[in-house]
Design goal:
Oligomer: single chain
Helix content: 40-55%
Distance between the termini: 34 Å
CATH topology of the largest domain: Rossmann fold
Structural class: alpha/beta
Largest sheet: 6 strands, mixed
Number of helices: 21
Length: 635
């Protein structure tokens, strides 16, 4: 259990938390959200013991039960596989003791250590680590490569695999999807759904949060608000709360009208029935959540291009690749005004190669690329922020493009990207990745492109900025080709999907849900075991079935008890939420409500005791189940 009571936390003299309270029960999966700089990462550091409260109380599991994903990794000579297995600290400790006992021929120590190794499923450690690495996109032949041979993004994946390898009761993940493509994200979602411990995750990917969380902790105005349900439920609840504030009413109505107008226009123009229906449903949902973003600091658009051609760009029988080696062959693609194309495909299939070729950044190996007379491209590459001048300000970046523009006009435009006051005129040397990504998008938007080529534009962007980008792309009057692992962005801004796979790019008539199933099928086929070699003894299926039946017989009643305890915990948590709501009503503290207040406080104390007892029983039962599973695995 994590319990924060009346917490006070300062960083550099700046208050991040004031009288903040939060209770997270074992097994809950919680998304931690809030504006950039509100203290999400500081809260993680607090839970890990790297920071200490300036006031209040904190109850947290012991450090040995906590796993967290490091943000940096040394360039080690250790193999990728060994580096990930190192995450299982108890395993490595037993292996070390075993090696010492064998070296000293301590036969009385060797057998017990082998038993301990079997009890924690140590003999399957290599298999477990290999599955984690495979799920995160590593090819089998790369597992023996040293850590130093991998790029920064792949090292972050190694860190994530090592974190998942840890034996933890509390898992802290800070932006785990930042360096993952869509197929790895989908795999990670499935893994985290089955994680039995407490999960606390910071993410700017709303679809990912929806899939893996059942509660949301929102840091706002230096306090913590706890919401039951996933991120979509949080948006609706917060939207309802903000909609009640009269000061925001007018802005909210304008945003609703904006989305309704887009839905009407989309209904009239859509040609693909399945995509159209999926899109309309998604946009209708956006209308519901719009009030949750009325206080967003971001509001911008892509100004319409001065001129536009009937056909913006065409690839004809094009072969695309590097150093004479083709990755995609015979590509035929024409992009017209109003086209909104999302590129799907596994990692390394050629999505970025196609974007670069369309942008003219990568020469064709063969075939023809032709652009319209008025083609004007706005290209956002995966590493676009590296091209910015650290010694220049956001204002100076735009002044270099438009030296005759009025300064106030430029400042007004930058304000939509939340560069206001001194920040607009300060150098960007100390800007965060998210701030630099916003500036890169601002520079593209200012140049009025009629074709947007966007390769992972949401990397480093927070949820509010992603929402603003989604709205801006919906209103963009030119054309767009988008590569993104943010499914919400793809679903709400594209009218057409193309699948890039196995050397070709072609229209994909299904939707994102079918694409997820297609990816899963591809993964199953890759991992399908080869046929048993000739002469190898076949598996005794009768004995296997008998053992499986025996396992079910022993585990079934324990799992039933576990399920009952979980249901009991859900009921207790709901009662706790109801009592907290009752006690948050100021009327209960009036003179005539003294008996009611006394009763509610007594019930709250009883509820806390019952929750703790139930959680202890749940933990004991879970440990018993894990022991039995380990015992069965070693037989």
């Amino acid at each position: 259990m994590i319990r924060l009571q009346q917490a006070e936390l300062l960083r550099g003299g700046k208050p991040l938390l004031e009288s903040a309270s939060l209770t997270i029960h074992h097994g809950q999966h919680v998304g931690l959200v809030g504006a950039n700089g509100c203290g999400k990462s500081s809260l993680f550091a607090l839970l890990r013991g790297e920071l200490h409260l300036d006031g209040g109380e904190l109850r947290v599991p012991p450090a040995t039960d906590i796993a967290h994903m490091a943000q940096e990794i040394e360039a080690l000579d250790r193999s990728a596989l060994d580096y990930v297995i190192d995450g299982d600290t108890p395993l490595r400790d037993i292996e070390r003791q075993l090696a010492e006992a064998e070296a000293k021929h301590l036969s009385d120590r060797i057998a017990p250590l082998h038993e301990q190794l079997a009890a924690i499923d140590g003999y399957n450690a290599t298999t477990r680590a290999s599955k984690l690495l495979s799920g995160l996109g590593f090819a089998n032949e790369s597992l023996d490569r040293s850590v130093r041979e991998f790029s920064g993004g792949w090292r972050m994946r190694l860190n994530l695999a090592r974190t998942l390898m840890c034996r933890s009761r509390l898992l802290l993940l800070d932006e785990p999807t930042n360096h993952l493509d869509l197929d790895a994200i989908l795999w990670l979602e499935q893994w985290l759904k089955q994680y039995p411990g407490t999960l606390l995750v910071i993410s700017h990917d709303r679809d990912f949060l929806d899939a893996v969380t059942d509660h949301i902790a929102h840091i706002e105005r230096r306090t913590l608000n706890f919401y039951r349900g996933n991120y979509s439920a949080f948006e609706r609840l917060r939207g309802e709360q903000l909609a009640q504030q009269q000061a925001n009413f007018e802005k909210q109505q304008q945003q609703r009208a904006h989305i309704e107008s887009y839905i009407r226009r989309f209904r009239a123009q859509a040609t693909k029935a399945r995509q159209a229906q999926s899109r309309i449903k998604a946009l209708a949902r956006m209308e519901e959540i719009a009030p949750a973003h009325v206080d967003s600091p971001f509001s911008f658009s892509f100004p319409p291009a001065d001129k536009i051609s009937s056909t913006l760009i065409t690839l004809d029988r094009a072969s695309l690749g590097y150093a004479g080696k083709p990755i995609l062959n015979n590509i035929n693609l024409s992009i017209h005004p109003g086209s909104a194309i999302g590129l799907l495909g596994p990692n390394g299939a050629g999505k970025s190669t196609l974007i670069k070729s369309l942008a003219g950044q990568l020469p064709l190996l063969s075939g023809e690329r032709s652009g319209g007379e008025h083609l004007r491209i706005g290209y956002f590459a995966q590493h676009q922020i590296d091209s910015l001048d650290d010694e220049a300000s956001p204002l100076l970046h735009l002044q270099r493009i438009s030296p005759d523009a009025r300064e106030q006009e430029l400042r007004d435009f930058l304000g939509g990207f939340n560069f206001r006051g001194d920040q607009a005129s300060d150098t960007i040397r100390h800007f965060s990745g998210g701030e630099k990504a916003r500036l890169a998008l601002a520079i593209i938007a200012w140049q009025k492109p009629n074709l947007l080529l966007l390769d992972e534009p949401t990397n480093h962007l927070d949820l509010e900025m992603r929402h603003a980008l989604t709205l801006a792309l919906q209103e963009h009057q030119g054309a767009m080709v988008l590569v993104s692992h943010d499914r919400h962005l793809i679903r709400n801004t594209t009218d057409e999907l193309w699948l890039v796979s196995e050397g070709v790019a072609q229209p994909y008539e299904e939707d994102l849900d079918q694409y997820a199933e297609w990816l899963a099928q591809q993964k199953r086929e890759e991992n399908r075991p080869a046929a048993a070699p000739a002469g190898q003894a076949p598996v005794d299926r009768k004995e296997l079935k008998r053992r499986q039946a025996e396992q079910r017989k022993q585990l079934s009643p324990l799992r039933n008890q576990l399920q009952k305890l979980e249901q009991q915990l859900d009921t207790l948590h709901q009662q706790a939420a109801n009592l907290e709501e009752q006690l948050s009503d100021s009327s209960i503290y009036e003179e005539g409500q003294r008996d009611t207040l006394k009763q509610a406080l007594a019930q709250q104390a009883e509820n806390r005791t019952a929750c703790e007892t139930c959680e202890e029983q749940w933990l004991e039962l879970q440990e018993r189940i894990e022991e039995l599973q380990a015992q069965f695995a070693s037989e």
